[in-house]
Amino acid sequence: MSASVRSPHRLITYLAFVITLFFVLAVSASAHSADKKVIKALYIPLADHYASLVAYERYRKEMQFADYQLEQMKNWDLLRAYFQSGEVDMAYVMSPLAMDMFSEKPHFRWIGLMHRDGSALAINDLLNEQVKLAAVRHERKPDDKVAKALKQAYESTGRATEIGMPHLLATHTVVLYRYLKEHGVTMSLTPNSGTQVLAIAVAPPKSPSFIKSKSNRAQAAAFEQSLPWADVVETGGFGHVAWYSKDVMPWEHGHVECIALATDAAIKDKRKAVNEVMAYIHKAGEDIEVARAQGGEALEQIVNIVRKHIPAHTREAIIASLDPDLRVINYQNLDVDKPGLKLIMDLAVEGGIIKNAIDIEDFADEGFSRNGFNGLSQAQLSR
């Protein structure tokens, strides 16, 4: 047979082999994908939840059991309603809000932390005229200066100074309550209570404009928000970071703040997938810690991941939030911390922030610890 005859035959055979191989690989990939369980998680655009974004961008394709999906929510009330509907698997929630949700409908468990520490009090220029904050941030501590300025504002105007919280059922409210209590300043969550401070709900992205509008009317104002919003007002030149929550609530490894929740249904029917997601959140937290220590390109990669999902967070504010010297938020030791949560709960009940204490033993599921997932090898976790 001539070469001119053999060549088309070989070409046809080769093409048939390639097409068959492609089909087999596609079927295999489809079958593998079909084996994965959808894990849909809700988050809010805050530094609190950066580890979830890093886990999603870097590791979702490596996950063997989880089809990891993220949905950003505009505010905490929408997140609460959506999660309580039972239509999603996981949510990342501030601890007092999570406890209140559990009291309302205990269809989920607490399976880990998203970070530790991570919020700050920002004040406007009117308050800082009296406080006179140190120029260097690491020298700013929760002493009595801000408390005295708030007392003075009340004596001068007869009105409570409004301080913005991301939600009234926030860890931030607990931190502020503790600070004010220690310095003899009264706080209420409801207007016309005769207190020196009124905590109000201000959505995190709106907190800079809240400070601006109060300053334009020559009114004292502050907010206690998650990073990077306090850094945004300082880098933007219209407010000042007064102190960080880590100094108000000192705790081994950092105080409890946002926690990871998973529904009972997801834990029962998708346990390996939920476990895998949490394992990679731990890994992502380590990535952030390494990046902030190294700086340079490693940190820029984290910044790019964050800004892909949350463009409102400026590069400057993200880098300031992850300052390795200040360490005002950290993403280590993310296992369930029962004593740490009890500290928050007891203060929240005492301050009237949540109505009732919960049974932490019932609330917590410690089966999702950093070392508790056998489906993910130590080599993968330490890579």
UniProtKB/TrEMBL annotation:
Q: Which domain of life is it from?
A: Bacteria
Q: Keywords for this entry?
A: Signal
Q: Where in the cell is it found?
A: Periplasm
Q: Which GO terms describe its cellular component?
A: periplasmic space
Query: What family is it from?
Result: Belongs to the bacterial solute-binding protein SsuA/TauA family.
Q: What is this protein called?
A: Nitrate ABC transporter substrate-binding protein
Q: Which organism is it from?
A: Shewanella violacea (strain JCM 10179 / CIP 106290 / LMG 19151 / DSS12)
